[in-house]
Amino acid sequence: MFAFPVTEDDEFPPFSYERLQPALDLARKIGRYGGCFVGQVHTSSLGRRIEKEFVHALKDEAWFGSLKDFGDWWVGRNLVTADVLHENGKRIVVLNIPRRMEGLAVMLPIRSTPVTVENGGRYFNDGKLIIFEIAEGTIRITLDN
After folding, report:
1. Of 58, 72, 81, 123, which residue is the least packed, with the fewest Cβ within 10 Å?
2. Distance (Å, whole) CA 130 – CA 82
3. Dihedral Cα 12, 13, 15, 17, nearest 10 deg
4. Which residue(s) pair with 94 in the sheet?
5. CB of 10 within 8 A of CB of 41?
6. Fold (CATH) for 80-143
7. What is the 3-state secondary structure (H, E, C) of the chain?
8. How confident is the prediction for the chain on average, in pLDDT?
9. What is the pTM of this model?
10. What is the C-alpha separation between 114 and 122, in angstroms, rounded?
11. What is the pLDDT of residues 132-142, one digit of tens each?
């Protein structure tokens, strides 16, 4: 079972249009470190209008998904295994990803830089963090030490 705590609760009074900007500010702050903003949308016409503006404001900088999408991602993430091997004086991080998933992020060991990534497809490397666009199967990351 997974629990996704609601970041912005529309049932907390007062529910009003003035809460949109603080919610956007909080979503951007959480997004800076890759966090997850879970919003609850009020079923009224005002709630739908606020949701539409929230999505429009963040559409170019955030990923949007349903609770099922989040749950599927976490199930896949929990199936991932990692091991570190030593070959020819190098450390190799071996990831086994049995279920295809998007956006798998891996924090590399301290004082390590990736030299090669095998079978990783497209990925983004920001120093110690590697984020794979699509991950599946076995990925080998050779480190510089």
Report:
1. 81
2. 14
3. -110
4. 83, 140
5. yes
6. Immunoglobulin-like (2.60.40)
7. CCCCCCCECCCCCCCCHHHHHHHHHHHHHHHCCCCCCCECCCCCHHHHHHHHHHHHHHCCCCCCCCHHHHHHHHHHHHHCEEEEEEECCEEEEEEEEEEEEEEEEEECCCCCCEEEEECCCCEEEECCEEEEEEEEEEEEEEECC
8. 87
9. 0.69
10. 14
11. 999 999 999 99
pLDDT in tens, 31-82: 887 788 888 777 788 888 988 999 999 999 998 888 888 889 889 999 999 9
Q: What is the pLDDT of residue 144?
A: 87
- Of 141, 136, 131, nearest in space to 104 by CA: 131
Q: Quick one: tokens of 16?
A: 């009003």
Q: How many residues does the chain have?
A: 145
Domain map (residue ranges) of the chain: 1-64, 80-143
b/e burial code for range 51-72 (CB count within 10 A of at least 16 → b): beebeebbeeeeeeeeeeeeee
Widest distance between CA atoms in the chain: 63
CA 145 to CA 143: how far, in whole Å? Answer: 6
Q: CB-based burial of residue 104 (10 Å sphere; 0-12 exposed, 13-18 middle, 19+ buried)?
A: buried
